[in-house]
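Sample entry follows:

_____
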Amino acid sequence: MIPYREQLLPLEKVFRDPVHNYIHVQHQVILDLINSKEFQRLRRIKQLGTNSFTFHGAEHSRFAHSLGVYEIARRICDIFARNYSVEKIGPGGWDDQERLVTLCAALLHDVGHGPFSHTFEHIFHTDHEAITVEIITSPETEVFQILNRVAPGFPEQVASVITHDYPNPQVVQMISSQIDADRMDYLLRDAYFTGTEYGTFDLTRILRVIRPYAGGIAFSYSGMHAVEDYIVSRYQMYVQVYFHKVSRGMEVMLEHLLDRAHELYRETPEIFALHSQLLIPFLAEEFTLEDYLKLDDGVLTTYFIQWADEQDLLLSDLAKRWLYRKPLKSATFDEEHQWPLIKTLQGLVEEVGFDPNYYTAVNSSYDLPYDFYRPKSGVHRTQIELQQNDGSLVELSKVSQLVAAIAGQKTGDHRFYFPKEMVDPTSSNNYDLFSETYQAFAAHIHNGALV
């Protein structure tokens, strides 16, 4: 009988995909993981969360993204096995015995994401990576039972790739590094579904120039421009999509809605027993893995619809603003000098009847489009290495003027969020009563910035 880890499907299974055309599944293990209840749950969780309020096409799921990461990792394994195996190039080459652990880790890397994951994590103190590891290693899950059929200890091996503890750096960097299967898929997929053409890059060329070495993964020097293209695409996607001010405004609204529910539960827990039972373990801060896996975007959205009719005016209004896309407006501000002004503006917001704790927020969003290893920084980020003709390696920003120009540069802004009514008289029900207050507030907004 063929061992489970070596069982191939009688006929290759394919998933039609708008980004990769076809996603190819040959291993029985991979198909079984895809069909597990924990992985199928990812169909019900959006990849981009609140970004779908800004880019209406961004309705794609973490299920689709996870399949895409698997497919890119599978293609890389094929390239490595065909061109750069240990048998062909010696030490530092690819050992194809690593294929299955790589493909499983690629497929499962996001299985622990929750609904509206980053906002949910912040409110309820969950960690999607820790939960991913728990799903993979908990004997109660279908995912564990499938992986454990491969070999005892195999689930822990897959989990160690996620935690970056797996001994082979080639496997770890294929799943998590500055340029990995995860990032390459989400950039292309998010660009496709948001309709932002500048987020695309030449994946075919990058896969042509990728290669293993003893310390991980590098890229042929001749492929430098394709890697530059990827870096610029990532930069553009962060600036134009992931940091979009409206998406962040909706995220702030979601955070305040869940905050209000959390606070209300402490005062009157019985109201949530009527309609929000699956959320109670999180409101009570006593949840299990089983509780976590019952949640998805649809569950929370259903609860928000019910909260819109609650007697608590704050919970009801915040739920309606979320459901009917009424984002908070925002203005940029100087973090170093304008905190006193923000306090003043919060006072004006309160004067017209809004609780500033729920209707104002400060949101800062930054990312490093590319950061190379700097010994004095105290943070070791995986470098992008280019392999020269003689086999020696050079770090990308050392030879790319384009990357050097943006390496280590932070991109983002600080924003003060407030109700739209503060600057739009037509949306306010009490403008005549508080016209002077509204005018005083609006006087401090000019060209989208606080003055």
